[in-house]
User: What shape does this take?
Amino acid sequence: MAEQTWNSFARLNAGERFRAQSAEMGTAATEAVVEAARIAPGSSGRPGSSGSPGSSGRKLRVLDVACGSGEPSISLAAGLGASGSVVGVDLAGAPLEVARERARARGLHNVEFMQGDVHALPFAAESFDRVTSRMGVMFFSDLAKALREMHRVLRPGGRVALLAWGPMEQPYFEMTIGTLRRLRPELEVPEGARAMFQFGAAGTLSRALGGAGFADVEEELRHLRWDWHGTPEEMWEYFRSVTLPFRPLLEQVENDVEACGAVLAALHERFDGEWVRIEAQMVLATAER
Assistant: This one.
């Protein structure tokens, strides 16, 4: 999606207002990427290494693509400590300022953030030992080209770990968009929103990785905690502000009291008085160069 879209005031304002809830909601997704990347304190930069202290004099370098406001870049950097460094790249500049602030607040000096396009990464070939992306790969306008760029900047034996939405038919979207469409059948899912779920069919992402030259490709559908720490009303406000691919559909029901009320009723069914409890279905794919 265009840089100005991801820099939109409504999205950034909601992200700031609900920063804590958003971070908590995405914790399990972040942990899944970090685990899949096989990164730990003392990880080696040696090709093919999964991380044994002292096995190489070179520090491990990680590239986090479509890092947005800082995750999983920050968690990766915290896990590596002095044994490695992380570069977070995103097309939009505004979220990167939030990422830098978060890194400073954590006292992290081994992570940097820069604006860049995954389709033309500003790095030399074989520059990184790991490449990660959490919830970004669905939005690449030219998937094959983006994956080839990831492959190019990886060192031989390097590892890629990607996390994306699974099928649209899952609680988070069924309770929100699904509820709206059942009440208003004429509402159509925008093309950009449909792209969010392009990897919902098993094997789609792994085939794309294989086509880009990656080896030892593995893919699985993960069921991850996606809980909202707050009220259903707050969660619905957050969803409407940050889920930009659905913006054209959401604008059509912005003042529809009945439709919004139906969504809130669905969310209240998952509300335990403190959390809106939801499980997300996400595709996790890993591969090596």
Observations:
- The first strand starts at residue 60 and ends at 65.
- The longest helix spans residues 171-183.
